[in-house]
Amino acid sequence: MTEVRLLTLNALIRDDVPARLRALGPVLERSGYDIVCLQEVLHRGSARLLRRVTPGYENRAGTGLTLLAGGLLLVSRWPIRRHRFARFPMTRPLRTELLMRKGAQLAVVDTPAGPLAVVNTHLSANRDDDWSEGNRYTAIIRGELDCLARLVTGFEPDLPAVVVGDFNVPRDAPVFTRFAAAAGLRDVLAGDTSTTYRPTPRWPSPPALDQVLLRPAADRPVTARARTVLRDAVRVADGRDLFLSDHYGIEADLSFGTPGPA
Hints:
Layout lengths: L1 E9 L6 H15 L3 E5 L4 H10 L5 E3 L11 E4 L3 E8 L15 E9 L2 E9 L13 H18 L7 E6 L7 H10 L2 E2 L22 E6 L6 E8 L4 E2 L5 E2 L6 E8 L6
Helix pairs in contact: 1-2, 3-4
């Protein structure tokens, strides 16, 4: 049995970004994560800062000269064989969020268990906090999930895949469960409705918005378990205690068995 450890985290694009990223670096270095998928790392300067504070992650994937496409950054202790960014379709209503060019980052990482497809994504936010079928933002998310399902099924069938990120849709929403079925994905945290977004007075009971989904390959048996992490504040360089993000992270342990006989 070979295990690969992965973290997904929306790193929050605003509020003390350099201080929080400098504090995140040592956390990642000590963690033992093999692959880290980050969302809302929009500026190349933030990516360079993370490179300085995470020297153990020599392999990186992010697209764009000044701004990272989709704000997506993948760092890995293992070689990244290939990667690309696919943008979601532009849809109304017009919103400043469109400037982030949201989409999906698709990579293949050469792990000790063999090549693994890793999809890091960040979907559009639902400003109404209403994921019913007729909601205007649900329609946007439905289109993005349809696009994402096509991207995932485009990977070679003999390649196991893990799909992670900030989906901005609850785990039990019908639009999400239909997507998982269409893409042939298993929701590793199915049935767990505990929040992945830090509660606030305005939003005291947010749903689970960050997800980990798995697609095994026929001859590459793989199981997974996951849990929320990075819930507590950390001490930053100037002595303040800050939360690393407005989201919690999700840690996933992927366990690859021995392939069966041909």
